[in-house]
Structure formats: structure tokens, C-alpha cells
Amino acid sequence: MDTLQTGDKISNIRNIGFIAHIDAGKTTVTERVLYLTGRIRNVGGVDEGTTAMDWMPQERERGITITAAATTSYWKDHMVNIIDTPGHVDFTAEVERSLRVLDGGIVVLDAVAGVQSQSETVWRQADTYKVPRIAFVNKMDRVGASYERTIETMRRRLRANPIPVQLPLGEEDGFYGVIDLIGGRALVYQNNDGKVSLTPPDEMPIPEDEMSQYNEYRQAMIEKIVETDESLLIRYLEGEDISEEELRQALRKATINRILVPVLCGTAIRGKGIHPLLDAIIQYLPSPADVPPVEGKTPKSEQIEYRDPDKEGPLAALAFKVVSDPFVGRLVFLRVYSGTVKAGGLVNNLTKDKRERMGRLLRMHANHREELEQVQAGDICAAIGLKDTFTGDTIGTQDRPLILEPPKFPEPVISVAIEPSTRADQDRLSEALRKLSEEDPTFQVRFNDETSQTVMSGMGELHLEVLVDRMKREFSVSANVGSPRVSYRETLKNRLKTEGRFVRQSGGHGQYGHVVLEIEPLERGEGIIFENAITGGSIPREYISAVESGVRQALDNGPLGGYPLVDLKIKLVDGSYHQVDSSEMAFRSAGMLAIREGATKSRAALLEPMVELEVVTPGEFLSDIIGDLGTRRAQIKIIEGQEDLQTVRAMLPLGETFSYTTALRSLSRGRANYSMEFKYYEPVSENVLKTLVNVV
Predict the structure, then answer these.
(1) Does the pLDDT value for residue 696 go beyond 80?
(2) 388-398 pLDDT per residue, tens
(3) The predicted structure's pLDDT at residue 452
(4) Residue 558 and residue 519: Cα distance in Å, rounded?
(5) CB 326 within 8 A of CB 315
(6) With CB atoms counted within 10 Å of each terminal CB, which end of the chain scores lower, N or C?
(7) What is the pLDDT of residues 323-335, one digit of tens each?
(8) Is residue 409 part of a domain?
(9) Residues 477 and 503 in one domain
(10) Structural domains in the chain (count)
């Protein structure tokens, strides 16, 4: 295995992630990459439950990736930090936190299915964090595989600008290699009778019967590349030849600037196409030095500042993942953007304003660990000893503090009640829930005072099912779990002014807080905005944060069913204080009272989560499936055919999807499958509200 002194060669680091729709073959691609780079000695298989990256028992039993696993490999004098992310929408938080700290991504697509619903989701997430990416069209050996059709779905569904840099050689089970459009050669893999081939491909001249297609695609590729570089374009128009190296450099620049998306192909299960994919990662995806300096805000002034990836610069590192390891305890994953962290050194958690000791530093390989003495700018590691550091916190220095933007996570949409089976399980349950919520920002736990129940919320039925299974296995907790319930939201329909006054006199110092708020409805998805519009000092500045805290606390319980209020702008416009009796507690209470008073006066609306459902089914079952969706309040968006398969995309309430797996299996004799993704909250109609009154 190669080694690399990262501090001296930051340009030789790649921080990349594999992202995809479930079952596109992402983990298989990752496994082949790890084998070819010498990271693992045996090639694992998803179906056999022997993959290195899917190491959790739940992953191996279900054949899916649940948690983002990190590792480091080496290829041609480059260090490649790899994160293998889940493809199932229930675990989208793992994709979100990974993309926040990665410099490049490989989007794995199924050559038969093309772009699927979760492909769109991860693509949008990558857009949010401005992550350059390349695409790998996998499963080229399957019946019905089409390279051209997959690229077309990239243009249509992702609104991407794909640029094929390879052409497949052979079709379906006759797939035997690729044509390198830039290098002008064929990369041919030996036929190993359907077995895995991980030997390098043979470089050969392009077959004569492929020359016409090669010339056509190469011409189109060159034109796309030179259009991104003015000097190359001028030379090209003047009839000059553009060299292979110049094309690769221009394509690298266009990829890093997210103008073009290079597209490659292969079949990971057979090991074909992985060698040139590794080369493409090095050639086209950025190093930490190629991406813009990380942006953050100074703690007090909130001025925007930037940090270059300089090992000698002030420390700036982002905690993007927390894991409870049964052997070493609490692991905090860090992306170091600037400076150097050393094992055993003191650091500052700038988000919490706390001093912590950086214990051991580890290079992770899934659930295996290697000790490190220090980690420099541009690198990723895991740390032991950071007791008060959580996902999204910034580690830095007090003399040059800079707080980095944390990852953004969606709100949970489904809830279940959970209670310990026995009194002896109570403490273990509390500890398990605490540790799991520390690990997963989309997993929330609250206690319902009215029902005296502990309620846990997550992104879907599978998400909660896996967490309950982890409680049993990892924490030895036996618990009773209720039926899934939709996590509704509430909002207010009309604009109003409301007042909250908290006054208490009990001898000696009393309590006094008085606020006036304006409440304004917002568009769906805008969340809660709190604005301080106080002028003239009617409320001292030191009490403003307490008002906001009280407001946000009160918004957790809406007037209809006690669900959180969302999509509101709360403006603090006036109030009064007492020089002796006012306190933070008094103003927090006044903020709460104002919201409760306003919520009772305003017209409220119940919001239900809507999901986009994508069903892929043989054509003979299409009418029955559409009929069933009609009974579930679904709005059909599109029906499109592909050979004998039909794809149905529809919007419907999340509450109508419970047990859909069983229903679809029955309707299609087990031959159809589906995926779904939460999209937004939508007001329920008056008719539906009446049917839900018992639910809420």
C-alpha cells in the first residue's frame, strides 16, 4: 500500500463519497475500489453480507447501507478518503452530513433504471453543498442496460450537463470493456466466465466496427470541453489539435467548477470499469486545495471570514458525525479545514464555548481503527475524548475563532411510542435513546406529558425499525413499540399582534416581563423566523435571547393537536421591563404566554407530510396499482414506460403509505418495488381534518 505525507502534498488528497439510489450498486463499487487500492484483501458481496463497509449486523441482514462508513485508500500516490453513504431515503441524514464535508462525489446509477427518485435527492443535496461530481453508470451487463438512456435521464431528471468520457464495449451480458474517448483507446477486460475480474484491463486499439460511434462521441465531447475554456476554443476553431493532457486539464477545471459531469460506465459486480473510475477520481475531482476556502462566522461580530487549507493556519475543524463505539467509546468524526490537530492536545469547541482535550486520533476503516499522532488541513479523522462535541460543532482556537456552518437536517416525519418491557429496562432504554439521538440528528425523543409516553420520531418506518433493533442488540433493551403515527405540523393562517405579560409578586424581588409580538404566516417550508425589531430600548438587549427562547419553546405545541407550529415569522416589536424585577426567566415566560395567546386567537391549520412515491412495476399490474393509489389520496404525476416496465410517480400523504410494502407485494405478486421521499407539508382539507380529529 502507498503512503503519503499529507501535510506536504495536500494536492494529492481526495475527499470523496459514493452516493446513489438504493440498489444501484454503490457499496459494490466501493468494495471493488477498496480491493484494487489494497485496502481490503478479499472482495465482499452485499448479497452474502460480507462487505467491509456495510459492517453493522442490520446492514448485512438487510443488504442495505444504513450508516455512512469512512475509510482511506491510496491510488497512484494519492490518498483517497472515502465515505460510502446510504441509498435509502430514511437515512438521508448520513448523506447530508457526508456531503457537507466532502470535496467530490461519485454518483452511481443503475444502467437499467437510470436516474431514480433517491438519485434526484442526493443530486440536490450535492448541489446544496456545491460538491463537484462524476457519474458511474453501473450494471452495464444486465438485460435492458442502456448507457445512452441513462445519460438522457441525467439531462432530463437531474438537469445536469453530463459528458460521456467513455463508451461501452458490448451489450448486456456481452459487455467486455470501455472505450476511453479522451485517450483514444479501448480498455478490454478478460472474460472470466462471469466471475469477478479485478486485473487491469488490456489497452488495445479501438475495434473497427466501433470507430464511427467513437468519432461521433469524441467530437461531441471535445466541443463540450473546449466551450468551457476560451483559449482552447479559439485554437479548436482555428483547426488546431487539442492534446489529451489539455483535454483532461480543461475537463478537470470544468468538473471542479460544476459545469460538466464526466460519465463513465462498467459493471462493479464483475470488476469491469473500476480501474478507469479510480483514475477519473484522481484526474477530475478536486483536492482540498482546489475548492474555495471554507467559510464561517466570527462568534461575537458574526463577520464572514474564510480559512485556506493551510496546516500552519489557525485550527478550523467541523464535527460531522458522532458514533458510540463499543470498544473505544464515543467517536467524533472531524473534517479539518485549516491548521493541525494533535493527539492529546487542548482544543476549543467554539460552538459550545468549551475547552476540550483531543484524546486519541484515529484513521477509520469502517469499524476498524488506526492510530494517528496528528491530522492536518484537508484531512478527515475520528477523535476520542471530545465529551461535549456534537454533530455540527466547530473545533478551533480562541485567538482566531471561526464557527463553520453545520449540516442541515430534515425534521422527522413519523413517530412511535416506546416503553420498556420491564422496570429493569428503564435505565437502559433512557441511555440507549440518549446515545442514539446523539448519533442521529434526525432521531428525536420527547416525553408526552398528556399520555405519559416516551415518543421517538424519525424519517420513516425502516429508520425507526433499525433503531429499535439496535437498542435490543447494542444496549440489551427490551421495549414495547406502538404503531407508527404521522408527525403532523400546525401553522397559523392570519397575521396578528399578540401580547404576553408575566408578573409575579411574592415579597422581596418579583418577576416582570412584558413583550408585544407580531405573527405573520410564511410560505411552506420557510420554518420559523424570529426578528428583533425593538427600538428605543423598551426591552434591554440582554433579554432578547430569552424572549426568543420562550417563543420557540411555545411553538412546540400548537392549538389543534399539540404539534409544532411552523412557517411563521415572529417579530418582537415592543414591550417593557422593570429595573429590579425583570429577569431572563420572566421574559422567557412572557414570550411563551404571547405565543399561546396569539395561537388561540388565530385560525390554525393542520399540516400533513407529503411524500413522492415512485413505483416500478411490470405493465400487467399497472391498472391495479394506480387504482390502489387512488384510494390513498394520491396525485399521479407521471407514468412512463421502459420496455415491459412501467414507472409511476405520485404525491400522497405519508399517513397513506403505512404497510404499502405488503399491499404492493400483493397487487404485483411480489414483482413491483417502490421508493419514496418526503417532500413538504401541506394543509389537510376540511373533510380529511374531520377524519383525523381522533388521530391528532
Answers:
(1) no
(2) 999 999 999 98
(3) 67
(4) 14
(5) no
(6) N
(7) 877 777 788 999 9
(8) no
(9) no
(10) 5
